[in-house]
């Protein structure tokens, strides 16, 4: 297992267990969200920490880069199968609807994402696929656990 996989597991654990007090930001500029997806086949809750981009007034945006791998990440298939999920943004839990952004709307968002994270364009080149852009549109705040 690569080092980033271990780091992701640790980050997911700390972010979740601290109720967002730790893990909502990596460094000074990487804003992180914890998605609680439902397994596409299993229906089990799968927490996934991802960098997010506050580039739209409709919600927050994440990308399914999978670190530049040729396949979409598992969480992408999960949100396509079960788009109504819960997320943890900092210490705030929200119910969101995950919607893939296409066409002109995607073309407008992509340069903003790359400006915030130049690695996104590297991942797109390396993967050989269009990196899906997912809007997490807030439905309502979730009740405290």
Could you walk me through the main structural features you see in this protein, from its secondary elements to its overall organization?
This protein is α+β, with helices and mostly antiparallel strands. It has one domain: Electron Transport, Fmn-binding Protein, Chain A (Pnp Oxidase, Chain A), CATH 2.30.110.10. Helix content is 32%, strand content 36%. The protein has 4 helices and 8 strands, in the order H-E-E-E-E-E-H-E-E-H-H-E. It has helices spanning 3-17, 74-81, 103-116, 119-127, and strands spanning 25-26, 30-38, 45-51, 53-56, 59-63, 84-89, 92-101, 133-141. Strands 1, 2, 3, 4, 5, 6, 7 and 8 form an 8-stranded antiparallel β-sheet that branches. The protein is globular and about 40 Å long.
Characteristic key phrases:
32% helix; 8-stranded antiparallel β-sheet; globular; 145 residues; alpha+beta; 8 strands; 4 helices; Pnp Oxidase, Chain A
């Amino acid at each position: 297992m690569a080092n980033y996989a271990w780091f992701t597991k640790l980050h997911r654990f700390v972010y979740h267990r601290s109720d967002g007090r730790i893990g909502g930001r990596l460094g000074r500029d990487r804003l992180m969200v914890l998605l609680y997806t439902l397994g596409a086949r299993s229906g089990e809750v799968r927490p996934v920490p991802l960098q997010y981009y506050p580039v739209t007034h409709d919600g927050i945006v994440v990308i399914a880069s999978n670190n530049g791998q040729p396949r979409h990440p598992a969480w992408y298939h999960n949100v396509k199968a079960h788009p109504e999920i819960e997320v943890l943004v900092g210490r705030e839990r929200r119910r969101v609807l995950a919607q893939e952004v296409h066409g002109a709307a995607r073309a407008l968002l992509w340069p903003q994402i790359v400006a915030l994270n130049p690695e996104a364009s590297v991942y797109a080149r390396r993967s050989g696929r269009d990196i899906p852009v997912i809007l997490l549109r807030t439905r309502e705040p979730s009740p405290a656990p």
